[in-house]
Write a structure and sequence with these properties.
The protein is of the alpha/beta class. The chain has 16 helices and twelve strands. The mean pLDDT is 95.
Length: 416
């Protein structure tokens, strides 16, 4: 029951307290065995992702608005419905009884019989209801695959219906577990496994792993980072001896990947402290952390050879690893344009600015580089596998095509 308690806590905190799923899970899963932790994560993250579909089923079969249910009942029914629909390893009777028990343990004895009745109806009718849903339009696909309408419409318009459907399916699966091995050859402490995994020739330095061994992160041997994120860092093209600016650097995956003398900037003091700790663990002596707004840097931070703007964005390319993000995402094109222009003002004439975002919306990708209107260098020639279909100088990775996070990457040059 403990694993389900943890998942129940995550759902309650995400949807009632507006907590982030990963942070809620870290605290809820303390003390769980590896097996229970995996079960709790699949259940919690899956129920968060599938909230729209689950709520539709509960309302259609239960004949009661989800919004009118007590929060403990709402969370328990979502978890029960997810197990019935998506976890074949869980017997239906266990999904029913354990979900009802969650309501009882919450102290809502008056709602126990109601929850039991709804769960039994779901166990009998849920499969048929889901199989009756189609994905012919973006609105029906948004319900079938549990996304807000605006995200489904964006992908429908930008990528076409077939690719949009495939992307929705792909981002409902657990994300890849990829790491970047620290290139600084950190010593291997006693009792820590050597860093190893499945290499990918398309992403030099990246490894796909089944798990992150104890000690890899603590001793700075590796860092969890999607292959697409590592590609964005590689596209900066920094070399030893160059001065490099990372304008939105926390938590530090790309900053510690860069060569040269790196100034890593973050506007948030707490995130800058995390970045400083990351730099220390990685032994990245070439990185200096500065807490500042990237749009208003101190005057002495100028004349860089290269800059990276891994900008805040809607995050539609990382929904597989951020289960709650689809319910809180929003595009940020105005901020992105301001940051890129600020970075261009801080590099020398002939210097380059690499712009990357983990999203796919045209407003945050193509429209941003159009608004900035700086000359583009051709990353598509360097990495033809990821050449953007409409902007061949740029790169676009897509989860359903490349098996990694969705990233847009462009490299601009300052000519004046």
């Amino acid at each position: 029951m403990r694993a389900r308690d943890a998942a129940y806590e995550v759902l309650t905190r995400v949807f009632e307290d507006d907590a982030y799923a990963d942070r809620a899970f870290r605290s809820a899963a303390v003390g769980l065995s590896a097996r229970d932790r995996a079960f709790a994560m699949e259940l919690a993250y899956g129920a968060v992702r599938q909230r729209r579909l689950l709520d539709h089923a509960i309302e259609q079969i239960g004949k009661r608005s989800v919004d009118k249910l007590d929060p403990p009942v709402r969370a328990a029914l979502r978890l029960g419905a997810y197990q019935l629909a998506f976890m074949a390893s869980v017997p239906d009777h266990a999904a029913v009884s354990e979900s009802v028990e969650l309501v009882r343990r919450a102290g809502l004895e008056r709602a126990v019989s109601f929850a039991n009745a709804i769960m039994r109806r779901l166990s009998e009718q849920l499969g048929r209801l889901i199989s009756s849903l189609d994905d012919r339009s973006f609105t029906s696909a948004a319900l079938r695959y549990s996304y807000p309408d605006w995200i489904a419409e964006s992908w429908w318009d930008d990528l076409g219906p077939d690719s949009a459907r495939a992307l929705m399916v792909a981002q409902n699966q657990p994300a890849e577990l990829a790491i970047r091995r620290n290139h600084r050859n950190r010593p291997l402490p006693d009792g820590v496994e050597p860093v190893d995994g499945r290499a990918d020739p398309l992403f030099p330095g990246a490894l796909i792993v089944d798990r992150i061994a104890d000690g890899w992160l603590e001793h700075g041997l590796a860092w969890p980072q999607s292959r697409a994120s590592q590609l964005a860092g590689s596209c900066v093209g920094s070399e030893p001896g160059e001065r490099v600016l990372d304008l939105c650097a926390a938590p530090g995956g790309k900053a510690t990947q860069l060569l040269g003398d790196v100034v890593a900037v973050d506007v948030d003091a707490g995130r800058a402290r995390q970045l400083t700790e990351m730099v220390r663990r990685q032994g990245a002596d070439n990185v200096r952390v500065v807490t500042a707004d990237g749009r208003a840097l101190p005057g002495e931070l100028s004349g860089f050879d290269r800059a990276l703007v891994d900008a805040p964005c809607s995050g539609l390319g990382v929904l597989a690893s951020r289960p709650d993000l689809r319910w809180r995402a929003r595009p940020l094109p105005e901020l992105q344009v301001e940051l890129v222009r600020a970075a261009l003002g801080r590099v020398r004439v002939g210097g380059t600015v690499t712009y990357s975002v983990c999203t796919t919306t045209i407003a945050e990708t193509e429209d941003v580089i159009d608004a900035v209107a700086a000359p583009l260098e051709s990353l598509g020639d360097l990495y033809p596998r990821f050449r953007h279909p409409r902007r061949p100088q740029c790169l676009l990775t897509l989860p359903h095509e490349h098996g990694t996070a969705g990233f847009f990457i462009a490299r601009m040059r300052r000519d004046d």
